[in-house]
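Many introductory courses stop at the sequence. We go one step further.
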Amino acid sequence: MNSPQFFALFVVLSGVFLPYSWCQPTVQGKEIFDSLIRPLDESTPSLEKAHELVKTVFSEISGKLGQPPTVVVTKSGVGLIWGDLFKTGGCFALAELTPQSDLERVVIGAAFLEWEDEEWRLRQVWDIPVTWRPKGWQDSGSDYLPATPATQPFTLEDFSGDGVPEAVIAGGVEKYFQENYMLRFIPETENLKIVAYAMARPVTIGNYVRLYSDSGRRAIWSQWDYCKWEGADLIHVASWHSETGYDQNDPTFIEGMRVDPDGQPVTIRVFYGHGQEIENESYELTRNGIPFGKMRIHWKNPEHLPANSFEMEAMWLFEKITGLPPSLYPEAETTDFNFKDFATITIEGNKEAAILFGTPEAVAP
């Protein structure tokens, strides 16, 4: 499985093909997210709804420069957040186009507005299916969702560490997951830029922003993408993918990606077997889809394996393959151990693999 910028798997959301998670300003990614933007000089249902929102809902809200961010649900049920959202001293707002109480919403989306010259002015509109329900909500026959959604349509969090928060829009709800869109404020244009999409809320871990995605249906794989800020962009630098074959014909493997010094993705796969059956003798390795030798892991006391032996092995592989510290492994409960105190590792058939995994026991005929 290649890194997300070359991912072959897509989901159809809002009539647009979106990758499971995204944080890379590639041409493909830019085109995908640009397609969510509704130009303000075009006549579209979304834009008409946004102008109606300004005339009705926002006519009841008097903006104030420097106002602390304030979450509001209007009398008509529209969810929004307004105030000095991005530490500029100004006044902006994010709002859904149609209230959640309208269960037959024909026009859905989000709008970004600015309070200027004593009036609200529309700045941006996106075809993002904002979805949320108040805390304590339970589905019913007339209001059913396949997963419990966020309790607010818009939230602010400083993912970049520069003191200016990013905005997260709670998007559409599909079976097992909810879309999350991260947007960054651009001071030069005073507009918002979509910088990431994921199937769960983004997480800041160490110096990285981590995005999550999974297969949803059949729940056979999970993937975590690690991104770093470069200016206003989130750059994809590593990923970790774990997959269990659904049946005996499907491969079971883990796979990691790191970006090499030339900026090219390098993907290492450790093939365990098929379905639920794990090959204990040796694991086949590939690098960018090309055979990369075999790995053998010999537990020093196989009759009394540590309770977390699989996690220990996976964390060691994570560190070697992605180049990230084991503390960033997505399911790490503890890193207070040395894997080589419990096992020895040999690599057969490839000197470069032996170097990568740093195993003095490695042999490469």
